[in-house]
Design a protein that fits this description.
333 residues, two-stranded antiparallel sheet, membrane, GPCR_Rhodpsn_7TM
Length: 333
């Protein structure tokens, strides 16, 4: 603030617009610096850790399974979110200085990668459902090619859905800079019809599928536990239980991924629903967006703690063993 600035002018993002300009979110200098350092660190970690997941699954052939291909898709979307964080850092003070075109790019990129993440988590839930509830036919029903096709359809569908939903601001970038009480704010604001469609296809339907599938998986797990306690001795049933126990153990990490994902996703759509798809408070809007995208950092952290093969892969990457001839054939499991 200069000596000639009034307090009101210092709070405006665009002082020359007067009262029509958006206002800065005023914070102390130390808090502002801490926020920028924290968010920048999250961005770097999100990109780095998810890049490690991408390299690991892509490089080692032993990891080329349908389930891991789904994790690879999730890692690609999470990796992209790392760059979305850069735009969120620029928006943290409530001001947007990059213009309408970059606002559109930020909006479309954030929407597409978020939708692809949601679709991939649905696919992971389906994968776990088949693995636990029908283990004898899992390998015939869930193949690598089918997993790849589903992933491609998920990404293509996400791109088409959001390009159509946001076609208005894509064709007219100025519409992406919404006017509510403030001006020149890059916040994705759609009409009530677009908001309802997004809520249905990006939240209610995917979450309903995930919940139904996991309730079914839980019921099967409970019935298997009861069968094991009753000392069932039929050989075929014992072999089935043995397969399912191994699948349940392998699914724990994915269960955690899905639960954490829902915890990070729900607040954003709850705020959107309760505010009528508008923006009542910039601070609350930014917070739920940050929480939503923070999930992209949590996923690889979950892998570190629950997947031994990922820890081995990280060691191989940092020790440069992956550069050795034939390293892709190593038994990393």
């Amino acid at each position: 603030m200069t000596l000639n600035d009034t307090p009101d002018e210092a709070e405006l993002c665009y002082p020359h617009l007067g009262n029509s300009s958006c206002r800065r979110i005023m914070r102390s200098h130390s808090v502002s610096v801490l926020l920028h350092i924290t968010l920048s660190s999250i961005s770097v970690l999100t990109v780095t850790l998810n890049l490690l997941v991408i390299i690991s699954i892509s490089h080692f052939r032993k990891l080329h399974t349908p389930t891991n291909f789904l994790l690879l898709s999730l890692a690609v979307s999470d990796f992209s979110v790392g760059f979305v964080w850069i735009f969120l850092i620029l928006l943290i003070d409530g001001c947007w200085f990059l213009g309408a075109d970059w606002c559109v790019f930020n909006t479309v990129l954030g929407s597409v990668v978020a939708s692809a993440s949601i679709g991939t988590v649905v696919l992971i839930s389906v994968d776990r459902f088949v693995a636990v509830c029908d283990p004898m036919h899992y390998q015939t029903k869930v193949t690598k090619n089918r997993a790849k096709i589903c992933i491609v359809l998920c990404w293509v569908g996400s791109i088409l859905f959001h390009c159509l939903r946001l076609s208005n601001i894509v064709e007219n970038p100025g519409h992406g800079m919404i006017l509510f009480q403030m001006n020149l704010m890059c916040i994705n604001h759609t009409n009530i019809h677009g908001g309802v469609i997004d809520l249905i296809f990006s939240f209610f339907i995917p979450v309903s599928i995930i919940v139904v599938l996991y309730v079914r998986v839980f019921m099967v797990a409970v019935s298997q536990a009861q069968a094991m306690r009753s000392h069932v001795t039929v050989v075929t049933l014992q072999s089935s239980l043995k397969v399912n126990r191994s699948e349940l153990k392998a699914a724990r990490a994915l269960d955690v991924v899905v639960v954490v994902f829902l915890l990070c996703l729900t607040p954003f759509y709850f705020v959107s629903l309760t505010t009528g798809f508008g923006v009542k408070s910039v601070s609350s809007y930014i917070f739920v967006i940050l929480l939503f995208f923070f999930n992209s950092l949590l996923n690889p952290v979950i892998y570190v703690f629950l997947y031994p093969w990922f820890r081995k892969c990280v060691k191989c990457v940092f020790s440069l063993q992956i550069l050795k001839s034939g390293s892709s054939e190593a038994n990393i499991l």
